[in-house]
């Protein structure tokens, strides 16, 4: 090994991921030093309460609640606090002092990535965030580096482990959303506020990051269409199963070609897909991301999307890579937004939908409902009918139509006197 001085690592946060990063840094110190060419010295762990009980036994003398002073003393700051503040300010301070930064904080990168990347570029520092999307799965580096010479057209997949775990348990064990969420939280998959998971905010942050990287365009989080899983009922799960399908929460980032040039769309919503679809086999808290690029064709990335040790693996990968740059020198890889493509409104996105309706059970209702679809330019592919007392249940599958047309059909159905209820609306993937 050469005689490069120790690199001073400040770790912020000792929760599910932070405690595992600390454990691995301490347990594998010799091996990591050999890989980097210099010892990685964990100089402190920033926590709220130095005496708090933790899953992992960590040296008390490393704990500090003075995160600002800890950051000022480091070569590399690893941020595993979550949330926007104080993480954002601490990382900007770290970059300003010349330190490099590793973070797993997708909410922060999605909302303030450009600010952090600009601060890093001015100072020749690096911001690495492999753990922010797909947990342990390498996906940031492939998009940022391995595919840098190709033209990515689509990134699609399951990017939130907690909601995948919940939907999986709803399908396989008939669990309620609340019960499955409790287990996912115990297993360290959920965000500190799990609303971020179940309402799709976490997946939307990841879609923002993936779309920005894939299309070299700064995609603002506010323009990412977001729907979570709280509207998914037992009846929808049963309905999907009756037709050999599975419900999943997916993120879809696409380059949409058009006469005026390419536009970009990023969205997160539940879909119903055939049980034979590769994404249907993604169980528990696993993630899977498909990337399509013009020259490379279709690529699939699969693995643990959440969990303390799994995510710590990605954090340590970033840490080793940044630390080697300290030792060997040279510029780091940087994200680029040179393409600056416009973002397509969600209404322009095309999808197939399945709608379940409760309607009055009288002659002519089916024709009236079908007429509404035709009026709004949506073509119906399939209809199933099931009569119950004075009501009838209709399940209609559409051909591909724009989200704007579907939204106007839904408005018209809601206003129609024969439609008692729209029971569910789900997008279909083949
Ligand atoms: N848990 C997982 O599977 C994954 C988590 N992430 C991300 O990693 C980061 C950490 O996640 P977890 O470890 O799961 O969260 P966690 O909630 O288990 O840990 C965060 C820790 O930071 C501490 N903390 C928060 N604000 C603080 C402050 N101002 N001062 C001192 N301590 C503070 C909390 O007390 C807690 O112990 C988040 O950004 C999360 O989104 C990313 C991928 C997977
Ligand atoms: N809460 C997140 C953690 C990883 O990013 C998830 O469930 O995917
Ligand atoms: Na990752």
UniProtKB/TrEMBL annotation:
Residues where NADP(+) binds: 12-19
Keyword check for Lipoprotein: no
EC number, UniProt record: 1.1.1.3
Catalytic residues (positions): 206 (proton donor)
Positions that bind NADPH: 106
Reactions catalysed according to its record: L-homoserine + NAD(+) = L-aspartate 4-semialdehyde + NADH + H(+); L-homoserine + NADP(+) = L-aspartate 4-semialdehyde + NADPH + H(+)
Keyword Oxidoreductase: yes
Chain segments annotated as transmembrane: none
GO BP term, pick one: methionine biosynthetic process
Domain of life: Bacteria
Top EC group: oxidoreductase
PROSITE patterns assigned to the protein according to its UniProt record, in alphabetical order: ACT (PS51671), HOMOSER_DHGENASE (PS01042)
Summary of the function given for this chain in its UniProt record: Catalyzes the conversion of L-aspartate-beta-semialdehyde (L-Asa) to L-homoserine (L-Hse), the third step in the biosynthesis of threonine and methionine from aspartate.
Limits of the ACT domain: 354-427
Cofactors: a metal cation
Family of the protein in this entry: Belongs to the homoserine dehydrogenase family.
GO molecular function, a single term: homoserine dehydrogenase activity
The name this protein goes by in its record: Homoserine dehydrogenase
Chain positions recorded as L-homoserine binding sites: 191
Keywords, alphabetical: Amino-acid biosynthesis, Methionine biosynthesis, NADP, Oxidoreductase, Sodium, Threonine biosynthesis
């Amino acid at each position: 090994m050469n005689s490069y001085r120790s690199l001073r690592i400040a770790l912020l946060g000792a929760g599910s991921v932070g405690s595992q990063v600390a454990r691995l840094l301490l347990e594998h110190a010799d091996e990591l030093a050999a890989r980097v060419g210099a010892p990685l010295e964990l100089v402190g762990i920033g926590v709220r309460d130095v005496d708090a009980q933790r899953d992992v036994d960590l040296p008390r003398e490393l704990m500090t609640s003075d995160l600002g002073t800890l950051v000022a003393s480091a070569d590399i700051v690893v941020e595993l606090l979550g949330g926007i503040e104080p993480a954002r300010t601490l990382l900007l301070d770290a970059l300003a002092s010349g330190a490099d930064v590793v973070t797993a904080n997708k909410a922060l990168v999605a909302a303030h990535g450009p600010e952090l990347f600009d601060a890093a570029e001015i100072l020749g520092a690096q911001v690495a965030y492999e753990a922010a999307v797909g947990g342990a799965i390498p996906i940031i580096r492939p998009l940022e580096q391995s595919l840098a010479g190709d033209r990515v057209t689509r990134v699609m997949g399951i990017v939130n482990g907690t909601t995948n775990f919940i939907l999986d348990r709803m399908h396989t064990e008939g669990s309620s959303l609340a019960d499955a969420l409790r287990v996912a939280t115990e297993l360290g998959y959920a965000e500190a506020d799990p609303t971020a998971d179940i309402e799709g905010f976490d997946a939307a942050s990841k879609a923002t990051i993936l779309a920005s990287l894939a299309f070299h365009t700064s995609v603002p989080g506010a323009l990412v269409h977001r729907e979570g899983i709280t509207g998914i009922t037992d009846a929808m799960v049963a309905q999907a199963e009756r037709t050999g399908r599975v419900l999943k929460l997916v993120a879809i980032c696409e380059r949409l070609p058009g006469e005026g040039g390419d536009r970009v769309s990023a969205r997160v919503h539940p879909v119903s897909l055939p049980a034979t679809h590769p994404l249907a086999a993604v169980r528990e808290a696993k993630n899977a991301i498909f990337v399509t690029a013009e020259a490379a064709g279709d690529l699939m990335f699969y693995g643990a999307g959440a969990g303390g040790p799994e995510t710590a693996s990605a954090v340590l990968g970033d840490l080793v890579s940044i630390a080697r740059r300290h030792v060997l020198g040279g510029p780091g890889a940087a994200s680029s937004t040179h393409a600056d493509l416009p973002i397509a409104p969600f209404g322009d996105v095309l999808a197939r939908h399945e709608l379940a309706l409760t309607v009055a059970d009288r002659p002519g209702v089916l024709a009236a409902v079908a007429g509404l679809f035709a009026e709004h330019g949506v073509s119906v592919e399939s209809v199933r009918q099931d009569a119950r007392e004075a009501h009838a249940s209709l399940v209609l599958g559409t051909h591909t139509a724009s989200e704007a047309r579907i939204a106007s059909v839904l408005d018209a159905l809601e206003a129609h006197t024969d439609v008692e209820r729209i029971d569910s609306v789900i997008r279909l993937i083949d």
